[in-house]
Design goal:
The chain is an alpha/beta fold. The chain is built from 15 helices and ten strands.
């Protein structure tokens, strides 16, 4: 891909600069190739990773992302010829990564759909709440289409089908896709009422055909970006807070969860049940999320952390605040020992009790204590957001102060 010169750092007091990553890197869009196949909560755009690759990653360097999400860091790293390692609590990362890096395939979507229509196989998820999220009329049909999917062993057809089936199965559920967490709403229930009045089976298959073709085109576009044959380690269902790297990596690039946006398993479980995970599997994974798990306190080296903690009045929010930073900063403290060159941490400023919390500043101050130099923070404006915008947050009944910018914190290991 075409190289772009690194931004000339403006050595201002706060070492920050406003940028637009979309304009700095030669990637047509955030949904180009296989970057936008699956709508994953709070994922960062491929342009951020590409900017790091073009300006900081030297030949032979390896990349690590402990919050791998849908695999964007790895998918981009492969284009630039860098080995990489991805972790994520959500096991779906392994499937999404496998689809995203596929070689182009010659598959006829109409033939697949015909076979699916004729299939007699069934798959019934191991989930007691299934009928709460789907009208009874849809379930036998969904058992059948997923039975067809699960009848394949690992194959191109199975990889091509998985994302389209997940998308459309969610569309046919009571989940409100405009909300961050799995939830019913009047809007989503009205959608299902209208579907039930229609020729919904044909609608399902028309949507499926469109989505299959979209995946095939995306895979072809990714191939045209000339991804390299590199070594990759993908670990799904992994508890990042309890893990260490088996080998040193040169660059860490990641986007950790925000303070009160940590229940990703609640959103993911609808997909995971269709993929064959059990209620017991989901419970185990959910217990490892930040709102619910036990976190050992750590020593935090940030005056900003304490300054903002003192502004928070509610005991529960103080506990959420503490657990969040104990976990995130504890993770970075542990992992930084095995990172040779730089860390790139992509965060926004989220709020607690209506107070905007500068996550970037707290992370910087803490890691400076462990031998890392803050080079610069690049500030990018969020162009689009999955959620509806509210003047007042319906959950807290406070003025909505969710971040409208995201910050790429760049830290360099001293004496490196």
């Amino acid at each position: 891909m075409k190289k772009h010169k690194r931004l000339r750092k403006k050595r201002m007091e706060n070492k920050s600069e406003n940028v637009s990553f979309r304009k700095l890197v030669n990637i047509p869009s955030t949904t180009h190739a296989t970057f936008g196949l699956y709508r994953y909560p709070a994922k960062f755009i491929p342009h951020v990773v590409a900017y790091v690759m073009e300006n900081y990653a030297k030949e032979g360097m390896s990349i690590f992302d402990p919050f791998g999400g849908c695999g964007t860091t790895g998918i981009v790293s492969r284009i630039y010829g860098h080995d990489y390692e991805l972790w994520d609590l959500n096991p779906i990362i392994k499937i999404l990564h496998q689809v995203a890096i596929m070689k182009p395939v010659n598959i006829n979507s109409e033939e697949i759909i015909k076979e699916m229509r004729d299939s007699k196989k069934e798959f019934i998820p191991n989930w007691s709440r299934l009928s709460y999220w789907y009208p009874q009329e849809f379930l036998p049909f969904l058992y059948k289409v997923w039975g067809y999917y699960h009848s394949f062993k690992d194959s191109e057809e199975k990889n091509i089908l998985v994302v389209p089936l997940l998308k459309i199965s969610r569309y046919f559920s009571y989940d409100d896709s405009q909300r961050q967490k799995l939830s019913k709403s009047t809007r989503s229930q009205d959608k299902i009422k209208e579907l039930l009045k229609s020729d919904w089976q044909n609608i399902f298959f028309e949507m499926l055909k469109k989505e299959i073709n979209k995946v095939i085109i995306g895979i072809k576009e990714y191939s045209e970006m000339s991804p390299k044959n590199v070594k990759a380690v993908i670990r799904g269902g992994v508890d990042s807070l309890g893990e260490t790297l088996n080998k040193k990596r040169d660059i860490l690039i990641t986007s950790p969860p925000y303070i009160q946006s940590q229940e990703y398993m609640r959103q993911a479980k609808l997909d995971l049940f269709w993929l064959g995970y059990t209620e017991e599997d989901i419970k185990k994974l959910s217990k490892l999320e930040l709102p619910y798990r036990h976190i050992e306190p750590i020593e935090i080296h940030s005056k900003t952390f304490f300054e903002y903690r003192n502004k928070i009045k509610g005991k529960h929010i103080q506990e959420v605040y503490d657990k969040y930073f104990w976990s995130i900063l504890g993770l970075f403290t542990q992992l930084q020992k095995d990172i040779n060159s730089r860390m790139f941490i992509f965060v926004g400023n989220t709020s607690a009790e209506g107070i905007s919390i500068p996550l970037d500043r707290i992370i910087i101050e803490h890691l400076e204590n462990f031998g890392w130099e803050h080079e610069i923070t690049l500030i990018d404006t969020i162009v689009s957001r999955r959620l509806f915008s509210y003047k007042v947050n319906p959950a807290s009944e406070r003025k909505d102060k969710r971040t409208n910018v995201e910050n790429l914190v760049i830290l360099k290991k001293i004496n490196n």
